[in-house]
Write a structure and sequence with these properties.
The complex is a heterotrimer of chains A (429), B (414) and C (324).
Chain A: H1 2-21, E1 29-33, E2 35-36, E3 43-44, E4 49-54, E5 60-64, E6 70-74, E7 79-85, E8 94-95, E9 103-108, E10 113-115, E11 121-122, H2 134-166, H3 173-188, H4 198-227, H5 232-253, E12 269-271, E13 274-276, H6 278-300, H7 302-312, H8 314-319, H9 324-350, H10 356-371, H11 376-396, H12 402-416
Parallel strand pairs in A: 1-10
Antiparallel strand pairs in A: 1-6, 2-3, 4-5, 4-7, 7-9, 8-11, 12-13
Chain B: H1 7-30, E1 37-44, H2 54-70, E2 78-85, H3 90-102, E3 107-110, H4 114-126, E4 130-133, H5 140-143, E5 150-152, H6 157-170, E6 175-181, H7 184-199, E7 203-210, H8 218-227, E8 231-235, H9 240-249, E9 258-262, E10 285-288, H10 298-305, H11 315-332, H12 337-340, H13 343-346, E11 352-354, H14 357-365, E12 370-374, E13 377-378, E14 389-397, E15 403-412
Parallel strand pairs in B: 1-2, 1-3, 3-4, 4-5, 6-7, 6-8, 8-9, 9-10, 11-12
Antiparallel strand pairs in B: 10-14, 12-13, 14-15
Helix pairs in contact in B: 2-11, 3-4, 6-7, 11-14
Chain C: H1 3-14, H2 17-35, H3 43-59, H4 65-87, H5 92-111, H6 116-119, E1 125-126, H7 130-134, E2 142-145, E3 148-151, H8 152-177, H9 179-189, H10 192-196, H11 201-227, E4 229-230, H12 237-250, H13 257-278, H14 288-309
Helix pairs in contact in C: 1-13, 2-8, 2-11, 2-12, 2-13, 3-4, 3-5, 3-11, 4-11, 8-9, 8-11, 9-11, 12-13, 13-14
Classes of the chains: A alpha+beta (429), B alpha/beta (414), C mainly alpha (324).
């Protein structure tokens, strides 16, 4: 009988102890789950002692982790607390890595179960293999930079061509890019639209923007050229045009960033530790083909020769019987079409947005200048070099300075070689 | 040596200016006394980088105005709203503020970003107008000597950081990376998350801050992928669609690791990642504005008032801003900000708790002090106009791409 | 908003501190490009230097207003020297891009975490103008001129800003009329000319760059004071383009051109806002975002029309000069 009473007394005492463990202020506690990395899933770690001490009052509380690895130490009030893991209570073969602190200081709110964690490991665990090697990182960055650079080159070469014949820096060039991308979006991906395949939509968009560019060049800008004694006025005109077009696109398209319906999410191709999506690879291929096509046009066709003649010396070209006005119009068409192509490619790679062209404009200018004003091929090279250098810079400098470094690099190149990287030296002073 | 343009032209301009001023002066005399209606202004990001928040904030203010007018208006006067766009640009915003101030509008709802408010606050204070924002989370506003002319119902980044850190720990992640937009919002929150996660024993493998003007995030995502984090916090605006896509393609999608982001992703956000798969963002967790509290049906009412909103982020906060301002006017029996500004914090921490405008007005009429608790939850503003309590809703994206509420977390300022 | 309200809003915009700031920046550009032929695309950078110079002078070095102002001007002068020494020998187009690249990089640098302890990074700096406003002799209150009214601080700022504009223009006029000015204009029109006469062209160009840059810095100081806030996002290249727009509208190479052109430009900015706000009821079928976007479309269209029909500035006649 006494034995039975003793048993009940022990039971009650145990219950009392447990009851004492019920939190004085409902819910305020520090807790967590102790797990150790193992082959498949993390395994819970049982029986580890933890001590919590209030920073304000110095009062201490104890707890242990249960079979599921969970621990919870009730606290009387909100405040700052120090929790210490007693490393000697860790089971054998489990340890806290040397660089992780055993004592943590946290703020606990009223009624909050504040979680902390201890990343336990098995003794002698094999260190996880390091990330990609430095060489792989450099190559990946060069690859990413080339993709971006080619897209910028596509847009830039159009600007360069237009500038070479008309001496007009078209500030609305970015909007031509955006317009190309948006028209392609409208035709291929917009809800309620015709839902054509992207290739067809892009082709139509590029032709449409080319036509628009031709109309703009001849209809608006040429009369302005002859009337404005101040060449700068034309620049301001294109600034106004850029504003009007950009916000018109915002009104029509709204401010969200959208991908095309096709090729949106893809598994990247992996080789030699590098990754590139098929989408980006195709973008590069198309850009290269388009630029090669441009090269053929400029070098081998009569139209191209006429274009180069007009760019070099309009007076002389006219004297040899070239219809300068028609060539100028054609260059506006080709230049704008190239901008639109650049826009579509950029949108395939980086999605459509109402101000995507405007955001790229700085890089486009930089590519043109870097490569050398007035040479189409220099511009292409300039775009690629710019893209690669920008991305390489992020290996050393913080990412947020990416654009700043590109700009500084541009300024530096110009100081040393003002005609651009790929231009023949000419009198520039 | 040239002379300036002919004095004729300048004279013409001067005369024109003078005539318009004279006409204007006559017009001012002729205007009727503004007794019947109370004009309140909104200065919200309808264009610019924060443009996605303009429509929900504007809709919330409209809903609040409707609720207030249904309950009899403010001191018997009907509230009419005058909208203006701050465009995320200090100069444009300044001119828009001028437009509001010139119409004698002295209570303003806005702005959408801390940096715009900071550029306007001096003018607001000197004009003795009051401003309340549901979206400004930067810490600099606390120390700014705005003499009580500014208040906000939006939680500070400092309070928000620990919420995400705790989410990551709860999900069992000990190593995370943070990818944040390089502006006051992104950087501040990234720091807060990093600090909190580290203090609780976690390891932050990298915090990468990107240029908001970037178009491509592939190299940043690639760098994070190389570090093999167990969870990633992404802090940004709508460029996140591109970032998520890049992350999913490089093995950092929600099916591989824990993904955490800010604000409430709208029901169509997944289309910006993969238009062919509504479940592409399933399990991505967010911490954002609360839409329902204790049965307050703010969420459905907002959806009924403005269907098709792409996000509801900051809507409840801006709603509360207008209601609190109206209650302060009622309590002070004046629409002059210099008089009612002291009431703005007081109506959020009085004796009697009330959850909507008309109940609160009734309590005030019977002589009690009130504590307004709206859809954002209790705010208990300090005298500096900062909320001491913030309520977040944790959301998780479901298989249909819709953010579903998981639970609410209440945080008190230290 | 009725027509008279619109008119008063527009009038107010024309005399606002923002207009004065832009006008001052344009005066600097007028000196650079209108009189010297230097195509400076980095004027926003000089404004930024002035603004941050003032703010850093007060906040980091505890200088009074005068000291901080001196610091602001010093910052700008240093930028001008740094920018000009290597590049002034380049052709106009190259100088344009280099000036743009250097000022953009500087802006991004100021915004970075690295410079945050001094420049405030993305948050910028606030509350550094109390010394300036303490100089205000106008007693507190509301002052009205017709339908326009300002408080004592706004009035003081406006007065100081426009006084600065007028003083600077008179100074520039005097400068341009002087022998120095004659050389400058000769450089703009025909650079080999003055060189062959033995004038140190480079030195003159540098002086012009520095002076125009200092004027830009003054504009930046006024802008910073008007908001008591400096933030890197305010000094985007767009600001330089706005200044050029004002310059073109008013007529380049004319002393008062910048004031008139910028006033017109800022009036269009205000008028488009007011017009669309008043039409928003009729336009309720457009979303609020679209109404705001439409305002900027109108702005762009307005600019285009103005340049189309008045390509040499609003007042037409000017002296003949060869295209740069």
């Amino acid at each position: 009988m006494t034995f039975f009473r003793l048993l009940i007394a022990c039971f009650l005492m145990g219950a009392g102890l447990l009851a004492g463990a019920v939190p004085a202020h409902a819910g305020t506690a520090i807790g967590g789950t102790l797990r150790v990395k193992s082959a498949d899933a993390p395994a819970p770690v049982d029986g580890v002692q933890l001590t919590v001490q209030s920073v304000q009052t110095g009062q201490a509380f104890r707890g242990r982790s249960g079979p599921d690895g969970r621990f919870e130490i009730a606290l009387p009030s909100a405040g700052s607390y120090r929790i210490t893991l007693d490393a000697s209570s860790l089971p054998s073969g489990v340890l806290l890595p040397a660089d992780r602190p055993a004592t943590l200081t946290v703020d606990v709110q009223e009624g909050q179960r504040k979680l902390v964690l201890y990343p336990l490991e098995r003794a002698g665990a094999v260190q996880e293999q390091q990330g990609p090697s430095a060489a792989t990182r450099v190559m990946q960055v060069v690859l990413d930079g080339t993709v971006f650079g080619l897209i910028v080159a596509m847009a830039a070469v159009g600007l360069s061509l237009i500038y070479s014949v008309s001496r007009i820096i078209n500030f609305a060039h970015g909007e031509f890019m955006t317009l190309g991308a948006l028209l392609a979006f409208l035709l291929s991906s917009m809800a309620g639209g015709p839902q054509w395949p992207l290739i067809a939509s892009a082709a139509v968009a590029v032709l449409a923007v080319g036509a628009l560019g031709g109309a703009l060049g001849t209809g608006l800008l040429r009369p302005l050229e002859s009337r404005a004694k101040e060449h700068f006025a034309i620049l301001v005109f294109t600034i106004g045009l850029s504003f009007a077009m950009r916000y018109l696109l915002l009104a029509l398209f709204e401010s969200n960033t959208q991908p095309y319906r096709e090729y949106a999410l893809q598994e990247p191709l992996r080789f030699a530790g590098l990754a590139i999506t098929p989408r980006d690879l195709v973008v590069c291929a198309i850009a290269v083909l388009a630029l090669l096509g441009l090269g053929v046009l400029l070098l081998r066709t009569r139209l191209g020769r006429a274009m180069r003649a007009v760019a070099g010396d309009p007076g002389l070209a006219e004297a040899t019987g070239i219809d300068v006005n028609r060539i100028k119009r054609d260059i506006w068409i080709v230049g704008s079409a190239l901008a639109a192509t650049g826009g579509v490619l950029m949108a395939v790679s980086h999605q459509v947005r109402w101000d995507m062209g405007y955001q790229t404009l700085m890089f486009v200018f930089a590519a043109v200048i870097l490569g050398g004003i007035g040479t189409a091929f220099g511009t292409i090279a300039g775009g690629i070099v710019l893209g690669i250098c920008m991305e390489l810079g992020t290996l050393v400098f913080p990412v947020e300075l990416k654009t700043a470094l590109a700009m500084l690099a541009l300024a530096a190149v110009l100081l040393v070689r003002p005609q651009g990287l790929f231009n023949r030296a000419q009198r520039v002073g | 040596m040239r002379m300036p343009p002919s004095s004729n032209s300048r004279a013409v301009l001067a005369v024109a200016l003078g005539i318009s001023l004279a006409i204007g002066a006559a017009a001012v005399q002729a205007q009727p006394a503004a007794g019947g209606e109370l004009k309140i202004g909104t200065l919200l990001p309808m264009t610019g980088p924060a443009a996605q928040f303009g429509p929900p904030m504007a809709a919330a203010v409209e809903l609040a105005a409707k609720d207030i007018n249904d309950a009899g208006g403010v001191l018997g006067r009907k509230v009419t709203l005058v909208h203006a766009d701050e465009a995320g640009d200090a100069n444009i915003a300044s001119q828009a503020l001028d437009r509001l101030l010139s119409q004698n509008i002295r209570a303003i709802m806005g702005t959408g970003s801390t940096s715009v408010t900071l550029s306007l606050l001096d003018k607001v204070v000197r004009a003795r107008a009051s401003m309340c924002s549901g979206a400004n989370t930067g810490p600099q506003l606390t120390a700014y000597p705005h003499q009580g002319y500014f208040a906000r119902t939006s939680y500070s980044q400092v309070l928000q950081g620990p919420v995400y850190a705790q989410l990551a720990i709860e999900d069992g992640h000990s190593k995370i990376a943070i990818l944040a937009r390089g502006d006051a919002f992104g950087k501040g929150l990234a720091e807060a998350i990093e600090q909190s996660f580290k203090a609780a024993g976690g390891e932050v493998l990298a915090t990468i801050v990107y240029d908001p003007a970037q178009t491509s995030f592939d190299s940043e995502v690639q760098r994070i992928a190389g570090l093999r984090p167990e969870g990633v916090a992404v802090i940004g605006y709508d460029e996140r669609g591109k970032i998520f896509r890049s992350m999913i393609e490089r093995g950092l999608g929600p099916r591989n690791i824990g993904l955490y982001t800010t604000g409430v992703l709208g029901p169509d956000f997944w289309k910006g990642v993969n238009p062919a798969d509504a479940a592409v963002l399933e399990k991505v967790k967010q911490g954002g504005s609360v839409l329902t509290i204790r049965g307050n049906d703010f969420g459905p009412r907002l959806a009924a008032h403005a269907p098709g909103l792409r996000t509801t982020q900051f809507a409840p906060e801006q709603y509360d801003c207008l209601v609190i301002t109206a209650l302060a006017m009622t309590a002070a029996k004046s629409t002059d900000p210099a008089v009612y500004k002291s009431q703005v914090p007081l109506v959020t921490k009085g004796e009697v708790e009330c959850t909507n405008y008309s109940d609160c007005v009734r309590a005030l009429a019977s002589g009690k002090t009130i504590a307004y608790v709206g859809p954002t939850g209790p705010t208990r503003l300090t005298d500096k106009g900062d909320p001491t309590t913030a309520r977040f809703q944790i959301y998780a994206v479901d298989a249909k791409g819709v953010s579903q509420p998981v639970r609410q977390v209440q945080v008190k300022a230290p | 908003m009725d027509f008279l309200e619109l008119l008063s809003l527009t009038a107010r915009a024309a005399v606002s501190p923002e207009a004065a700031v832009l006008a001052l920046a344009a005066v600097g550009l007028n000196l650079h490009y209108g009189y010297t032929g230097l195509l400076n695309f980095g004027q926003a950078g000089f404004m930024m230097m002035g603004a941050y110079g003032l703010a850093i002078g007060v906040l980091s070095f505890d200088l009074g207003f005068a000291g901080a102002l001196a610091m602001a001007l010093a910052f700008a002068a240093v930028l001008a020297l740094l920018m000009g020494l290597p590049t002034l020998r380049l052709r106009a187009d190259y100088f344009a891009i280099v000036s743009l690249a250097v000022t953009e990089s500087l802006r991004l640098l100021f915004r970075s975490s690295w410079m945050e302890p001094v420049t405030g990074g993305v948050q910028g700096l606030q509350r550094f103008g109390d010394d300036f406003f303490a100089l205000n002799p106008i007693p507190p209150g509301d002052y009205a001129l017709g339908p326009l009214h300002w408080n004592e601080a706004q009035l003081f700022l406006c007065a100081v800003a426009w006084a600065t504009v007028v003083a600077t223009i008179l100074f520039v006029r005097m400068l341009v009329a002087s022998p120095w000015g004659r050389v400058i204009r000769a450089i703009r029109d025909n650079e080999p000319g003055p060189t062959s006469l033995g004038k140190p062209v480079f030195r003159y160009k540098m002086q012009s760059l520095v002076l125009g840059g200092l004027i830009g810095a003054l504009a930046g100081v006024l802008l910073a004071l008007s908001h008591q806030d400096v933030n890197p996002e305010t000094y985007l290249p767009t600001l330089t383009f706005f200044a050029y727009t004002g310059l073109v509208l008013g007529g380049m190479g004319k002393a008062w051109g910048p004031v008139i052109g910028v006033a017109i430009f800022w009036m269009i900015v205000a008028a488009t806002d007011g017009l669309l706000a008043s039409a928003s009821d009729t336009l309720s079928w457009l979303g609020p975002q679209q109404v705001s976007a439409a305002r900027f479309v109108l702005l762009g269209a307005g600019l285009m029309l103005l340049v189309m029909y008045r390509p040499d500035g609003l007042f037409g006649k000017r002296e003949q000069r060869r295209a740069a």
